Amino acid sequence: EMDALRDNACFVGAWAHGKQRSVHAARSDKGGVSVLQAVHRRCRAGVNKPCSGANGVVRMSIGDASGAGLDEEEARVMRSLQNGSDIRGVAIALVQNAIVNMTSARAAALGAAFAREAARVAGKDVADVCVSLGRDSRISGEMLLAAAAAGVTSTGARAINFGIATTPAMFMSTVTPDFEYDGAIMLTASHLPPDRNGMKFFTPRGGASKKTISDLIEDALCSLPVVSKDAFSGLDNNNSSTLTFSALVRARPALTQTVDFMAIYASQLVATIRRGVVDATTPDQRNVANIDADRPLAGFRVVVDAGNGAGGFFVSRVLAALGADTQGSQFLEPDGTFPNHVPNPEDAEAMEATVRAVRESSADLGIVFDTDVDRSAVVDASGREINRNRLIALLSAIVLRKNPGATIVTDSVTSSGLARFITARGGTHLRFKRGYKNVIDKAQQLNARTGEKTGAVAAPLAIETSGHGAMEENYMLDDGAYLAVKILIEMVRAYAESGGTDKSAFSATLDELQEPADEAEFRLKFEASLAADRSEYVREGAAILDAFKAFGARAAGWKEEAENFEGVRFVVEEEGGDEGWILLRQSLHDPLLAMNVESSRIGGVQSILISLVPFFEKHGSTLDWTKVANAAAAKSRE
């Protein structure tokens, strides 16, 4: 019977749906309906039609009762929601002529697909699966969370609502004792504008991979029409666009629950700080510096800028419990319009706002989070912004003290000065690729390979310049709050080491970081005719990179980096024995080439750009390199 189903191409896409239907039937009909019977009934009724799946696997589109399958446009839109290892799209029409593609129906279909995936990973029947769901402060968050939960419960799985939460907390709900949910879904679009939203998925194994997202989309496509009906049936007005979790609870009380997991997650962070301070200091040091092991932040003023995202909990549930003075903290209330600034540690306005808060309140430390708190940055008492290379340097110094000789894995756009900083502390800098999943996966690969041989940790820290940082001691989870916790511990440790005289001692190590005197990033977009076809602009980009490699090999004073994993990177000799560098690479997701340039000299970037003009004149006809030309011309007029 199984072979017959496969031969008829009715098995792959319909199996999971038949299984979930049999679960519902078993609850309402005496004896229930077997999975194979449910699948056969749908196939014989003509409602299952083949559709192409990932990697050429034949899947099924489950159409309506008339037998109509999903159209190509729906497939195109659903697949366009993939953003590497998560889902992102336009959820509400706040911009004129905006096309909403992150709809409740699609969120429900993805929720149902993920419930089935979580069941597969756990080796359970989907009816025994629990999936937690959380959201950031976005306007569309409540609606999409309820829709995703409706999709989850349509499979027979349970949906646990956390309300406003953080992305790292969602993963932690899958591994925390007494919770250990089979899967977790976070509704977020990180720092993107208020009209956007998306979904991130976790199992106890970690975040979803790019392939898993592709498979979820194909599964969702194959069951979208049926899930759209099943997910919202029996709810208030049967209207998915106004659905709330409360309505879902009324309709499906046995499959829904609300849990304040953020209290649990916050308590984990509090415990980590208390334990970390005790481990990093001696009783004598704590006594001299008057540090209370239970309230180790007493006497410190720490301000938080949450950017009206989900990070406000860190003030009331973490810092306050540890005795910190949080006067001067700002933008803690969730507000999905983001009225003050973009919640983004890379954003100049966000960092400037935090610097002002630190200075105006005479704080010892400022912390800035992105919307869903998987990224962070800090500001020291002097107002020095510690993000990008500085953040990586500070965290590297912390982990290398405990893990001498370890490897720090970063993305491809980190500075040469950072590499020297890490080397000077006995570490190895592995400059890998852009994309936080790439960086984390590389570190895990190194750890697995080394651990098999010696049991040692090869790469305790994997971090992007964006602020996505993951530590081996914390599940290799990119957690902005956990990074802030490590810096808070370091602040107290350094203060204790100073004999209780210097609260800013923790950041003094950054004085040894050689920073560029000049830096710039350019995003060179392909012309519209190429941008519409990924295969075409990727092919064109590869040709341009080949030409750039040949150009650099001939350029006087340019030397190609011996170890480079992304694009083409050259070290550029400068006057007085200084050096800069240039990296040209394909964007991970967008139809453009990204170019980063750094120099040890003021005005050095423009000097490098002047030498590039002949290259772009010859090879840049399909690129918009206007900003490069303007920057080079500005230098020549000086």
Number of helices: 21
Number of strands: 24
Q: Strand-residue fraction?
A: 15-25%
Distance between the termini: 80 Å
Low-confidence stretches: 1-68
Mean pLDDT: 88
> Percent helix among the residues?
40-55%
Alpha-carbon Rg, integer? 26 Å
Query: What class, by secondary structure content?
Result: alpha+beta
Per the principal axes of the C-alpha atoms, what is the gross shape? globular
Major beta sheet summary: 8 strands, mixed
Please name the defining characteristics of this protein:
single chain, 638 residues, alpha+beta, 21 helices, 42% helix, 18% strand, globular
Question: Can you walk through the features of this model?
Answer:
The protein has 21 helices and 24 strands. Strands 3, 4, 5, 6, 7, 8, 9 and 10 form an 8-stranded mixed beta sheet that branches. The longest helix has 23 residues, at 210-232. The chain is globular and about 75 Å long. 53% of the residues are buried. Residues 1-68 have low confidence and may be disordered.
